[in-house]
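Structure record:
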Amino acid sequence: MREVFHQSLEDVQGRLVEIAELVTVAIDKATRAFGTSDVALAEEVIEADAVIDEKAVELDELAIEILARQQPVARDLRIVVSALRMSASLERMGDIAEHIAQLTRMRFPERAIPKGLKSTFLKMGELDVEAARQLTELLRTQDGDLIDEIRNADDKLDELHVSVFEKVLSDSWQGDPSATVDATLASRYHERFGDHAVSVAKKVAYLSTGDWTTSTDTIDVVTPQ
C-alpha cells in the first residue's frame, strides 16, 4: 500500500513537470509571436491553453484523491498540498502566455510592441522563457541552485517593468492611448509571469524545510522520498 502511495506522489511530480513543460512552450511561442506579430503562432498559444487547464484540473483531482484515500501526514501532506498550489500558479502562467498572444492577435496586422520598447519587451520575453525552463528543471530535479536563478530572472523582469512605466510616463513618450495601454498590459503580464515562477520555486523550497519564512539563500532542496 505504501508503495502505491509513493507511486502516486511520483505521478504528482511528473504531472507538475509536464504542465511546466507546456507552459514553457506557451510562453516561448507567445513572446516570439508578440515580437514578430506572428498571428498564427499566437493562435497556437491561445488554442493550447485549454490543454494546460485540463492538465491542471487532472492534477488537482489526483491530489484530492490522494488526500481523501491516503490521508498523508507531515512531509507527504506538504507535498500534496503544495502540488495543488503549484498547479494553480502554473495554470495562471499559461493564462498569462495566452494574454500575451491575445495582444498580438488583437493588434494584427500592426505590431503589438509600441515603438521605442521593442528591445525591452524582447528582453522580458527572454527572461520569462528562461525562468520557465529553469522552473521545469527545478520541478524535475529539485536542484536548489535553480531557485536563486529563477529569482534573479524575476528581479530583472521587475526592473524592466519599472522602465516601461517610466517610458510611457515620460515627456518623450509619443505613443497614442492604445499603445500606452498595450505597453502597460504587456509589461504587467511579463512581470507577473516571473512572479508566479518565483512562487512555485518557493513552494519547492518549502518542501525541504516546512517553513515559509526560511530564506531560500540557504536552502538545500532534496528530492521527496
